[in-house]
Amino acid sequence: MEKTSSSSQLSAKIKSIFIYPVKSCRGISVSQAPLTPTGFRWDRQWMVVNHKGRAFTQRNEPKLSLVEIELPKEVFLEGWEPTGSSYMVIKAPGMDALRISLSKPHVVTDGSVWEWSGSALDEGAEAANWFTKFLGKTSRLARFNAASETRPVDPEYARGHKTMFSDGFPFMLLSQGSLDALNKLLNEPVPINRFRPNILVDGCEPFSEDLWTEIRINKFTFEGVKLCSRCKIPTINQDTGIAGSEPNETLMKFRSDKVLRPNQKQQRKIYFGQNLVWKDSLTAGKGNVVKVGDPVFVLRKVSSAAEAAA
């Protein structure tokens, strides 16, 4: 049963903010990011798709970890809008830089990620040829068509909320304490980029975030809706694109459902991090920017990971 703290206490501060403009490609560390109901602005707004419109991810194309994304710094200012000279630059080993206009393309195509499918905006032949050459498979770059499409998150966890091309939820939070605790158990420590969080917080105990069901960051309220279950991507070295067995092998020993949720249905999942939705996104006005250094207050939490949604 959830316990409500009598007064919200400062529990952590934001250490880093990460945006992943192209799904499964490298992220960008930023000092601030505008909030939108679907996640931070520019996060997972694009994805690489195959000839059937299905998303490529590092699960099936680990080479995507080598694709570097650059955006102009001003795109993270609230209220900024692209002009005809605003570009995203995409780089990868052995490839010329690819420039993608941030002004929206007009060609509509089909795209699908997991259970969702809908129309997406095609970024054209140059982008298609670039990714086809790099991956060695017919590919296209698709942009979420926010004008005509919505992608709801699982209503079992967060009814009424939506996201773009992220795996399941608009935001994912992880603590430095959790990463440090894991790295103490590993022969070779892993960096934060293995876990692809949007928000990295510091100053709390390891795995505190498991318990957070409602937090306030600056003036914004977020709900912790589901422990983040992990696929094989944390095993992929983001500098080389090569997969190993760690850290998932170690995580299975102390972060599996068998350990954390022994009385629940067992699915051999491992958990690391907390998925969030922005609770007051539907009524938000202006000034919706989250910054590095912002305080994190816990408003509600459960008493153990076994009680958290997963």
Précis, in short:
This protein is mainly beta and 310 residues long. The protein has a single domain, classed as M1 Pyruvate Kinase, Domain 3. Helix content is 12%, strand content 35%.
Per-chain topology:
Blueprint: E1 3-19, E2 28-30, E3 32-36, E4 39-40, E5 46-49, E6 68-70, E7 87-91, E8 98-101, E9 108-113, E10 116-122, H1 125-135, E11 140-144, E12 151-152, H2 155-158, E13 162-163, E14 171-175, H3 176-185, E15 199-202, E16 212-217, E17 220-229, H4 248-254, H5 257-260, E18 271-278, E19 289-291, E20 295-301
Parallel strand pairs: 14-15
Antiparallel strand pairs: 1-2, 1-15, 1-20, 3-4, 3-19, 5-11, 6-7, 7-8, 9-10, 10-11, 12-13, 14-18, 16-17, 16-20, 17-18
Structural overview:
Helices cover 12% and strands 35% of the residues. Strands 1-15-14-18-17-16-20 form a seven-stranded mixed barrel. It is mostly beta strands and 310 residues long.
CATH superfamily: PK beta-barrel domain-like
Order of strands, main sheet, comes to 1-15-14-18-17-16-20
Q: What proportion of the residues form beta strands (DSSP E)?
A: 25-35%
By CATH reckoning, the class would read Mainly Beta
Gyration radius, in Å: 19 Å
Residue share in helices? 10-25%
Category from helices, strands and their pairing:
mainly beta
Entry keywords:
single chain; 310 residues; mainly beta; M1 Pyruvate Kinase, Domain 3; seven-stranded mixed barrel; four-stranded antiparallel β-sheet; 5 helices; 20 strands; 12% helix; 35% strand; globular
